[in-house]
């Protein structure tokens, strides 16, 4: 029989103090507030103890009540979140009684928590290194998977800095070389000539050799092309077009290689937020680029933009080469607990192969090579990639077509937004860049908010398909609505505001179509993204060049440009909601 806490005598409460302290120490290890001095007011001690019970002990003990002798299984980390467990008034009363009657058999049966077996997933999760307020500013203390996410995030910042710099520098460059708007459109679209070529090869190479090597090579290639852009422009227009196309070839492997790295390194419970953060690096890169470019141009001339941004890529590459592991299995600095946590995750369904010089046996889906290190890495054989099934699957086509529709508006605005602010709104170079920052900053914020919302909806039990469709619908209809308003804006500030909401809501796509590849085939995530990004690169070639032609032929009528983007957003909404899926399609 359980007694109500209010009927416990003072002596019973004092006698139970050691057990209560024991249980409270468990709560402290799970993130409860640290214990304060004993001379704090008694009411404060009681209040704090009740908070600890409700906030951290209750989930553990409720699970103990619900599952009997089974030990508590700690939920997978979602950057500090706790598992939501059902409660009832009677269970809460039982727990409170047990805390103050731990010397009774009933109390001991509730409070005794079996220690998980050594090497179990519960033990791994309990010892899992995580970011805290004490170590967040000390990167050396970060879990290895967070370092991977952070460095990939930085690479995407540099990626868009090197992509957007020509959007600002093209204004003084056009004056220097006498280029028309049509020529400017061709120059800006030449990036995508190379970009489209390395999407599928980039995904294949990342699956075969690992995302670290492929992403690192891509950053080196595009940084070199950025650095030599002024020399190419001074030589001839064809030389500039070739340099921009080669830059696109380097950046074309970034997304597939990143997707392969995240698929290998990040558990499924953390992927929406991780992907949203990484993709938001592109938006932040636009912000940084738009801030720095005008100042560099005014102070040192437009060539300084390309020299500065190109050098940043080589600095990043040094940190990537020596500070990041290619996979959890091949990372020397990763803890055993974190490695188990990543590899045991149900979302990381991938084949692992031992690359051992002394073992000639091959895996059904792997490719055996000699390394002498014995490290385990993820690898694929040519025959293990179901190319035909990819193109027969409706969910894959939903991603491909929707990705095309997303990037039509994105690439057109990315390359032409500063020109729009200069031509249509009458801003000068500095003001144009300053106001162009606001929409990209909105995208950075909205992308991360969308990632948090998506993961929260998933933990609430909503189906992955419903979550992806919901986020992508916002990512389509939000931009469509606000781009329509931009066309009728009666002031510059109204136009900037509408454009900010259009691009900001569009970034919800990071938790929709951009996260969908890992849902339907995590083992082929890099290849699937390479396929869809090939479709997505077409608007960069056609849409960006077509915009220049339309502006020349219509006398600068931006309503036509925005109207085409709105049409593709509506098409994407229909296709994605009709055929998309969040369920596993490929093993």
Automatic annotation (TrEMBL):
PROSITE patterns: MFS
Molecular function GO terms recorded: secondary active transmembrane transporter activity
Transmembrane segments: 148-174, 186-206, 213-233, 239-257, 277-298, 304-324, 395-417, 429-449, 470-489, 526-551, 557-579
Region (Disordered): 31-51, 353-375
GO CC annotation: chloroplast; plastid membrane
InterPro entries in the cross-refs: MFS (IPR011701), MFS_dom (IPR020846), MFS_Na/Anion_cotransporter (IPR050382), MFS_trans_sf (IPR036259), SLC17A9-like (IPR044777)
Keyword 4Fe-4S included in the entry's annotation: no
Topology in the lipid bilayer: Multi-pass membrane protein
This protein's UniProt keywords: Chloroplast, Membrane, Plastid, Transit peptide, Transmembrane, Transmembrane helix
Subcellular location: Membrane; Plastid, Chloroplast
Residues of the Major facilitator superfamily (MFS) profile domain: 148-584
Pfam family for this entry, one: MFS_1
Similarity field: Belongs to the major facilitator superfamily. Sodium/anion cotransporter (TC 2.A.1.14) family.
Protein's name in the database: Putative anion transporter 4, chloroplastic
């Amino acid at each position: 029989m359980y007694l109500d806490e209010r009927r416990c005598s003072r002596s019973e409460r004092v006698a139970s103090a050691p057990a209560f302290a024991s249980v409270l120490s468990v709560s402290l290890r799970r993130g409860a507030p640290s214990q304060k001095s004993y001379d704090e007011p008694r009411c404060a001690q009681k209040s704090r103890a009740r908070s600890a019970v409700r906030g951290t002990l209750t989930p553990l003990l409720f699970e103990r009540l619900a599952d009997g002798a089974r030990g508590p299984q700690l939920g997978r980390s979602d950057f500090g979140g706790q598992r939501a467990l059902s409660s009832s008034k009677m269970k809460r009363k039982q727990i409170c009684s047990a805390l103050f009657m731990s010397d009774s058999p009933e109390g001991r049966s509730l409070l005794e928590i079996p220690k998980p077996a050594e090497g179990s997933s519960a033990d791994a999760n309990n010892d899992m290194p995580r970011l805290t307020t004490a170590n967040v500013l000390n990167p050396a203390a970060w879990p290895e998977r967070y370092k991977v996410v952070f460095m990939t995030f930085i690479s995407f910042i540099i990626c868009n800095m090197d992509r957007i710099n020509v959007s600002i520098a093209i204004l003084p460059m056009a004056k220097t070389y006498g280029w028309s708007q049509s020529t400017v459109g061709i120059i800006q679209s030449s990036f995508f000539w190379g970009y489209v070529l390395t999407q599928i090869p980039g995904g294949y190479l990342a699956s075969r050799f690992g995302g670290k090597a492929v992403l690192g090579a891509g950053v080196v290639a595009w940084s070199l092309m950025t650095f030599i852009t002024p020399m190419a422009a001074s030589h001839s227009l064809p030389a500039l077009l070739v340099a921009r196309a080669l830059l696109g070839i380097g950046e074309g492997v970034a997304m597939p290689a990143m997707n392969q790295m995240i698929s290998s390194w990040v558990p499924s419970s953390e992927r929406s937020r991780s992907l949203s953060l990484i993709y938001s690096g592109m938006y932040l890169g636009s912000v940084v680029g738009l801030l720095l470019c005008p100042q560099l141009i005014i102070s040192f001339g437009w060539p300084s933009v390309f020299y500065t941004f190109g050098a940043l890529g080589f600095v990043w590459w040094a940190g990537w080469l020596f500070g990041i592991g290619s996979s959890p299995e091949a990372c020397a600095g990763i803890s055993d607990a974190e490695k188990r946590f990543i590899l045991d995750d149900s979302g990381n369904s991938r084949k692992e192969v031992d690359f051992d010089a002394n073992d000639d046996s091959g895996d059904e889906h792997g490719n055996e090579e000699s390394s002498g290190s014995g490290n385990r890495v993820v690898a694929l054989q040519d025959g293990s990639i179901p190319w035909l099934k990819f193109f027969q699957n409706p969910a894959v086509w939903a991603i491909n077509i929707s990705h095309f529709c997303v990037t039509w508006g994105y690439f057109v605005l990315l390359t032409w937004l500063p020109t729009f602010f200069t031509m249509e709104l009458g801003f000068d170079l500095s003001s144009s860049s300053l106001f162009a920052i606001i929409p990209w900053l909105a995208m950075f914020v909205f992308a991360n908010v969308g990632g948090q919302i998506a993961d929260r909806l998933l933990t609430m039990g909503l189906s992955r398909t419903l979550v992806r469709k919901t986020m992508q619908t916002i990512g389509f209809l939000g931009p469509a609505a606000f781009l329509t308003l931009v066309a009728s804006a009666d002031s510059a500030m109204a136009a900037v505001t509408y454009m900010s909401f259009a691009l900001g809501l569009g970034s919800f796509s990071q938790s929709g179509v951009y996260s969908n590849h890992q849902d339907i085939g995590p083992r082929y995530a890099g290849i699937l993204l390479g396929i869809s990004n090939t479709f997505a690169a077409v608007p960069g070639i056609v849409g960006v060049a077509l915009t220049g032609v339309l502006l020349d032929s219509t006398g600068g009528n931006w309503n036509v440009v925005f109207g085409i983007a709105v049409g593709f957003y509506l098409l994407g909404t229909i296709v994605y909601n009709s055929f998309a899926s969040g369920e596993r399609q490929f093993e």
